[in-house]
């Protein structure tokens, strides 16, 4: 479990995160949503330790991040898988080399064991035949799946995804969402997804944290988000007519 | 104030580069790849420039010796001194600041822009050790490239001298042997090792800590070239004063 208590982060005089407290549980897909500029990427980067924060506590299964030494932080990060918005694949390596990279760095596996494991995760993300392609030869959706394969290849305890659906068509986006949910359940990871894709919210939002102006405005799940009367949440989530109608139908059905 | 900040940050980067080393099996591959990218791929341009600049030094010297009392072997002597003391170690390093330096800044800078460095850090890898250390070790072979440059510079001078009819081969060789001081070669290699470290670390610094997008990668490459050249020139002055003064 990842626990966040009273987190503050500023850039100069601009306070970006203002006392956020929440928790992210094991085996659940936790979504951080909010408008652009609401602080969700900063929040995610604080969770990952890429941004230092002024005040607050972030703990990974009881280990308080700010109290860890640099070496302990690096050891903890070896248990983290991350899917970046732009995939962040190493462009000098083939797809299979990208996937095998965490194994090369952190395990004593033989080459054949690493290849077997890479084969397994590439099949798991439905990319059985892409091994020797370079990242530049892969489509956006394929790159995202390779990034997911690389993130899970070393059996991480924590999986972070920054806008995993950005730049993808709706069909591929659903495939990626379902894949993340399946592997979260399968490997019992703590998964935190940064998103402003409302389809993702409705599909996989087992826990949703809504940020607004650096404050945690609301938290709930994909079921409770239909019923909330928080105006900021409903304005954001049901900004399109389609989602307004979907919500209306849901509320009518459940009355 | 910004210069002080950057200087401090540069030395912190160097200290951090040696912490939490990457697994040797991975590091070995990175070093070999960087030797190929930074040294082997530069040999052609170093050889080409050295050969022809050696020739130009010889022609210029020969054309400026009009007094019949000045011995003709001075052409070989002047070429040797110019190539070994300054051209091969210093001016080749400035050319390499453009070639190798901008390659290092742009490759590391692109990794920063595309979040590949963040990916390394999130995985718990010391990105500075992973990216900068192998380049620094690879460039420790740079003096070998400079030795080739010295040899070809003198050879280019000989070719220009003999085929251009400026002086005889015997006079040129006599000039090469006259008052030869082995320490000049040692001095040249000491400088080259220092410049190699500068060539690896300053461009890496500007690539690693850059912010922004593709445009900023270009700007960082230019800034890295300027500062690498400035530091090489300054260190050349200091080292010459210390070692030959």
From TrEMBL, chain A:
Keyword entries, A-Z: ATP-binding, Nucleotide-binding, Transport
Chain ranges of the ABC transporter domain: 2-238
Keyword ATP-binding set for record: yes
Organism: Seonamhaeicola aphaedonensis
MF GO annotations: ATP binding; ATP hydrolysis activity
The organism's taxonomic lineage, starting at the top: Bacteria, Pseudomonadati, Bacteroidota, Flavobacteriia, Flavobacteriales
Tree of life domain: Bacteria
Protein name: Phospholipid/cholesterol/gamma-HCH transport system ATP-binding protein
Keyword Nucleotide-binding (UniProt): yes
Automatic annotation (TrEMBL), chain B:
TM ranges: 38-63, 83-104, 139-166, 186-208, 220-239
InterPro entries, A to Z: Permease_MalE (IPR030802)
Molecular-function annotations in GO: phospholipid transporter activity
Pfam families: MlaE
Record-level GO cellular component terms: ATP-binding cassette (ABC) transporter complex
Annotated keywords: Membrane, Transmembrane, Transmembrane helix
The protein's name: Phospholipid/cholesterol/gamma-HCH transport system permease protein
């Amino acid at each position: 479990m990842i626990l966040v208590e009273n987190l503050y982060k500023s850039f100069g005089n601009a306070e970006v995160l203002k006392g956020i407290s929440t928790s992210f549980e094991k085996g659940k897909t936790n979504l951080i949503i909010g408008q652009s500029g609401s602080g969700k990427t900063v929040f995610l980067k604080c969770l990952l330790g890429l941004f230092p924060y002024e005040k607050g506590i972030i703990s990974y299964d009881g280990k308080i991040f700010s109290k860890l030494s640099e070496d302990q932080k690096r050891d903890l990060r070896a248990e983290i898988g991350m899917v970046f918005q732009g995939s962040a694949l190493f462009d000098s390596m083939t797809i299979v080399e990208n996937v095998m990279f965490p194994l090369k760095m952190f395990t004593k596996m033989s080459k054949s064991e690493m290849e077997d494991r890479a084969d397994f995760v590439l099949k798991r993300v439905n990319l059985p035949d892409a091994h020797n392609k370079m990242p530049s030869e892969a489509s956006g959706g394929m790159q995202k799946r390779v990034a997911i394969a690389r993130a899970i290849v070393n059996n991480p305890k924590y999986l972070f995804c920054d806008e995993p659906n950005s730049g993808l068509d709706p069909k591929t986006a659903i495939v990626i969402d379902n894949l993340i949910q399946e592997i979260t359940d399968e490997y019992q990871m703590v998964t935190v997804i940064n998103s402003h894709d409302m389809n993702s919210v409705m599909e996989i939002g087992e826990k949703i944290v809504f940020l607004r102006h650096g404050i945690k405005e609301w938290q709930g799940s994909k079921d409770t988000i239909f019923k909330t009367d928080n105006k900021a949440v409903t304005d954001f989530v049901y900004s399109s007519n389609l989602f307004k109608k979907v919500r209306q139908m849901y509320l009518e059905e459940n009355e | 104030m910004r210069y002080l900040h950057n200087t401090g940050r540069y030395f912190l980067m160097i200290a951090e580069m040696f912490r939490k080393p990457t697994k040797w099996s991975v590091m070995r591959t990175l070093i070999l790849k960087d030797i190929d990218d930074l040294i082997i791929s530069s040999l052609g341009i170093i050889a080409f420039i050295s050969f022809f600049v050696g020739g130009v030094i010889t022609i210029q010297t020969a054309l400026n010796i009009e007094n019949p009392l000045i011995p003709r072997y001075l052409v070989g002597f002047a070429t040797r001194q110019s190539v070994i003391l300054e051209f091969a170690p210093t001016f080749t390093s400035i050319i390499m600041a453009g070639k190798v330096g901008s390659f290092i800044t742009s490759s590391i800078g692109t990794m920063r822009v595309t979040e590949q460095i963040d990916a390394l850090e999130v995985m718990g890898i010391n990105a500075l050790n992973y990216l900068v250390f192998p380049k620094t070790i690879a460039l420790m072979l740079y003096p070998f490239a400079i030795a080739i440059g010295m040899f070809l510079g003198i050879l280019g001078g000989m070719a220009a001298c003999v085929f251009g009819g400026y002086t005889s081969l015997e006079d040129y060789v006599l000039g090469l042997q006259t008052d030869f001081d082995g320490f000049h070669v040692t001095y040249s290699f000491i400088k080259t090792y220092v410049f190699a470290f500068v060539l690896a670390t300053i461009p890496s610094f500007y690539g690693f800590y850059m912010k922004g997008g593709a445009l900023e990668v270009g700007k960082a490459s230019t800034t890295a070239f300027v500062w690498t050249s400035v530091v090489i020139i300054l260190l050349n002055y200091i080292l010459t004063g210390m070692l030959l003064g």
